[in-house]
Amino acid sequence: MPAGPARSPIWPPDTPRFDLVVEAATDDTHAMSLPPGFLDELRTRVTLSSVIGRKVTWDQRKSNAAKGDLWAPCPFHQEKTASFHVDDRKGYYYCFGCHAKGDAISFLKEVENMSFMEAVEDLAREAGMPMPARDPREAQKADRRGELAAVMEEAARHFRLALKTGAGAAARDYLAGRKLTGAALDRFEIGFAPDGWQGLWDHLRQKGIAEDLILGAGLARPSTKGKQPYDVFRNRIMFPIRDARGRCIAFGGRAMDPNDSAKYLNSPETELFDKGRSLYNHGPAREAAAKGQPLIVAEGYMDVIALAMAGFEAAVAPLGTAITEDQLRLIWRLHPEPLVMLDGDTAGIRAATRLIDLALPMLEAGQGLRFVILPEGMDPDDMIRARGREAMAKAIEAAQPMVNLLWRRETDGKVFDSPERKAALDKSLRAVIKGIADPSIRSHYGEEINRLRRELFGPAKPTFVPRAPGRQQGRRFGAAVPVSPLPATRGSLLAAAPGPEVEEYLHEAMILAIALTHPGTIERFESQIETVDMRDPGHDRLRHALLAAFHAAPVADAAAFRGKIVAAAGEEVEKLMSLAHVRIAPPVRNAEDADFAVMCLAEEFARLEARRGAEAEIEEAMEDLTGLADEGLTWRLSRAAEARHRAERSKLDEISEQGEDRAALSAELQRLIDGAAWIKKKP
């Protein structure tokens, strides 16, 4: 366990203490309480690489320490390549993989889980700068929390000693029966609260600790009968709950009496302890996850202890309740894809479904959940004791993505033997998927759900309906037979494409080609270049090379800049610039007209965004079409398609009017189609 604070009953009044309980004040408010220029001076004195260097290993091949240009594997997500860039001159870091960015203060907040002021204090000590006088009210609150933390440490020591006395014999026998070794008891500081009304109260009062501190720490409750306050924890095995930095902020107590109404009891919420924003074993799990271990979210204290003692040290647990939104954010800060470990019984599956509903709106690219479903009737402790560590390792390897649990929830125990029941499933799934905020993730969930749906129902069979008066014979609903395209459709350059992939590929290529030819545009469009979804892997690699070169040094010479890109991604550059539609594009051929390049780049981004937005809307609309199609809606969709084709033809006419080789563009389109140069969607 991380070392806690000095074990004294009361913190010295002149020692500033700041805990990690989430406060209402924002970072801006804290910054305003500091003298003008203090933070600027602090950032000037502290080298960012020296702060971050505590947590990363620099890539010596890519780094240039003399120029303050350093690269390393990102400490915020699991990776093997060095995509995390630190610029000492600017005092700024950025990860090209997960897009984490910030300065020394934000780094300490994220990695060390410090508050704003704790990060400032840490940097000030490193820089040898005295901290300015604190706001008296904030200082009083901080000192109060420090005193409460000291009381909690004294209580933890009292419980540890009580476990070793005669009163703790039954508790020791129980723990031995659960196969907890002396090393486990010491590592997790497990103790015992004897069966008595004022045992802890009397001990703390004898240490000279004030009554209001004992009550404020949640260790005792006032009597309603005019007597002395009584202990909250009695005849219970005690588990200290520590914050991310190792300070005892609460306790969990497991009842020894089987008839006790509460098997597990946690400390009440206090100035130190917010149950919905705390995790058991937070600090050690964070350290283990940072070393590459999978983060496991278990249900209780004993599960975490069993996992940690079996070598799965990155294990945490919520504190007696379902995971909250704040706890889920904390978990994602420890690992982008934690493994939620649940019992295989009905209660475990029910807990999983509640967590799914909480997590879906919060999902981001690269940030999700996987689920480890244990055999029914077994928790992690049971499984490790009965089947051993290897069985647990195999269960972890078989973790399922969240979409599988979602599908299981919606389909288990149900029969879909009628159109009405199938339609009810479709409606339920659409409602769930619409709750996903990220459009890309929402789209991928839709694709996977459609795949699972096809597996469940089998391939759709064509269904014929009687010919209605005035309608073309052979009209069908469901799976459609191929029909000859209309003359107007055959005339479109897009008719040969199986979907929007060709157009998106071309837009992506033009964005990169313009940025490569006119590197001065990168600064203006940096955010869009960074966040646009490059669906072609080669384009994505080239985009990262562009941004890395841009962040490495200011763009002074276009030719020299392009040389750096060629050195980093020469094959992708050659492939891009050999495309006919890129070679003939005016902004690429005219490398001197920067204003025209800006205009063209903005247009390419707008067209790509509009196309993908329209795709998402159409897909959502098509998902809503259950049952028979409406002829009016079909007519409207056809008119929309015609309008889109007219717009594309007018764009090609514009290119033709500028003297470009339209035949070459058509030939290039055909080459892309034949060669499958884009990433096709799954059928």
From TrEMBL:
Quote the cofactor binding remark.
Binds 1 zinc ion per monomer.
Keyword Nucleotidyltransferase included in the entry's annotation: yes
Biological process per Gene Ontology, one example term: DNA replication, synthesis of primer
Listed under GO cellular component are: cytoplasm; DNA-directed RNA polymerase complex; primosome complex
Q: Where is the Toprim domain?
A: 293-377
EC nos: 2.7.7.101
Q: Per its Swiss-Prot or TrEMBL entry, what cofactor is needed?
A: Zn(2+)
Gene Ontology molecular functions: DNA binding; DNA-directed RNA polymerase activity; zinc ion binding
Q: Which domain of life is it from?
A: Bacteria
Question: Zinc finger (CHC2-type) residue ranges?
Answer: 74-98
Q: Which UniProt keywords apply?
A: DNA replication, DNA-binding, DNA-directed RNA polymerase, Magnesium, Metal-binding, Nucleotidyltransferase, Primosome, Transcription, Transferase, Zinc, Zinc-finger
Q: Which Gene3D superfamilies match?
A: 3.40.1360.10, DNA primase, catalytic core, N-terminal domain, Zinc finger, CHC2-type domain
Group of enzyme by EC: transferase
- Spell out the reaction equation it catalyses: ssDNA + n NTP = ssDNA/pppN(pN)n-1 hybrid + (n-1) diphosphate
Question: Which InterPro entries did the record assign?
Answer: DNA_primase_core_N_sf, DNA_primase_DnaG, DNA_primase_Znf_CHC2, DnaG_bac, DNAG_N, DnaG_primase, TOPRIM_DnaG_bac, TOPRIM_dom
As for what it does, the entry says: RNA polymerase that catalyzes the synthesis of short RNA molecules used as primers for DNA polymerase during DNA replication.
Assembly, per entry: Monomer. Interacts with DnaB.
Family according to the record: Belongs to the DnaG primase family.
The free-text domain remark for this protein reads: Contains an N-terminal zinc-binding domain, a central core domain that contains the primase activity, and a C-terminal DnaB-binding domain.
Annotated protein name in UniProt: DNA primase
